[in-house]
Amino acid sequence: MTDNERREVHLVDAFTTDPFSGNPAGVVPEGDGLEADQMRAIAAELGASETVFVRESEDTDRQLRYFTPEQEVDLCGHATVAAYARLFERAVVDAGEYTIETGSGDVTVEVESDGTVWLEGSKPSVSAVDVGYDELTDVLGLTETAFAGVGEDLPVARASTGMPFLIVPVNYFEQLGDVTPDLGAIEDLCAAEGAVGLYAFTFDTLDRESTVHGRLFAPSLGVNEDPVTGTASGAVGAYLRRFSGVEGTEYRCEQGDFLDRPGRVRVRTGDGIRVGGQAKTTMSGEIAVPDPEDGEIIEA
Questions:
Q1: Which end of the chain has fewer CB atoms < 10 Å from its terminal CB, N or C?
Q2: CA–CA distances in Å: residue 5 to residues 38, 47, 63, 285, 289
Q3: Within 10 Å of residue 279's Cβ, how many Cβ atoms?
Q4: Domain range enclosing 74
């Protein structure tokens, strides 16, 4: 066995201030010099839905690259919040605004003095799609009554602020909890509509101050159900601004309660769409980096 280079790694729970809730992200604060297969192997070893690698950039303050255990993705909201919350916690960055390079383009991150991290997404894109109740009943395992009422006012739509999601309104919290997803059918439906996942939501929330409660299914990314999703929350914020006609509003999205990982995402819909939240570091350590040709972690 060779002595492999080691890198600092962290698990950081995003969109929460409590450990073991929210959405855990792997954070590698010194990601320079790693090849794509090494980053994917590290992400697979850490096992979080996404791991973010913080790297130098010639054109922006930093570059962030995001890997699921299976593949690289262009942008990840909760991993961005986790990364900058960790950098702020370690005084690597101060409160202020930063530009970061991602696979979906340059985005802006703002860190507030209390550690809240805000991510400004790309220009919102929202368009209704022709998906009938009969198809939704098949993919989500619900009856048509789960969609009929709210669907009279709000359509199924494809929405994106950097990553595209299929947004599906559901009438009640209980019905959202009854979802039994057909992951293969969801993957096929999302592929047909040019989306990476399906975000089902209801206005029937647990907390009085919340706007929606959502669940996100993204099997094409290797994530059957994500606990708390920043990019999807931004997409539903753009969706609500478009179809509710309300601008300059801050929404609050609940997610993760059905997975015992409750988290809360703040969404501001002024000039653009911004998602924000805090994060809690739950584990720190080192990991041995494999040689590029090895393709596996030797020691953790």
A1: N
A2: 12, 20, 22, 14, 6
A3: 30
A4: 6-116+279-288
Q: Which residues pair with 119 in a beta bridge?
A: 109, 275
What is the distance between the alpha carbons of residues 22 and 226, in angstroms, rounded to a whole number?
A: 10
284 and 267 fall within a common domain: no
pLDDT at 249 (0 to 100): 83
> Is 22:16 a contact under the CB 8 Å cutoff?
yes
User: Residue 227, CB half-sphere, CA atoms under 13 Å: how many?
Assistant: 22
The verdict on residue 133 lying in a domain is yes
The three state secondary structure string of 25-82 is EEEECCCCCCCHHHHHHHHHHHCCCEEEEEECCCCCCEEEEEECCCCEECCCHHHHHH
pLDDT computed for residue 256 by the predictor? 97
Tell me, yes or no, whether 130 and 269 share the same domain: yes
Domain count of the fold of the chain: 2
22 plus 45 within the same structural domain: yes
Whether the pLDDT of residue 192 is over 60: the answer is yes
211-229 pLDDT, tens digit per residue, is 999 999 999 988 899 999 9
Q: Residue 297 domain-assigned?
A: no
**pLDDT tens-place string over residues 256-295:** 999 999 999 999 998 889 999 999 999 999 999 988 865 4
Is 101 annotated as catalytic?
Answer: no
- Does one domain contain both 130 and 261? yes
Structure tokens that stand for 55 in this block: 């790297």
* Cα separation values, 176 from 170, 222, 229, Å: 7, 22, 16
The three-class DSSP label of residue 182 is coil
For the full predicted model, state whether its pTM sits above 0.85. Answer: yes
Same domain, 13 and 66: yes
Are 27 and 159 in a shared domain? no
Say yes or no: 179 and 269 in one domain.
Answer: yes
Count CB atoms within 10 A of the CB of residue 283: 13
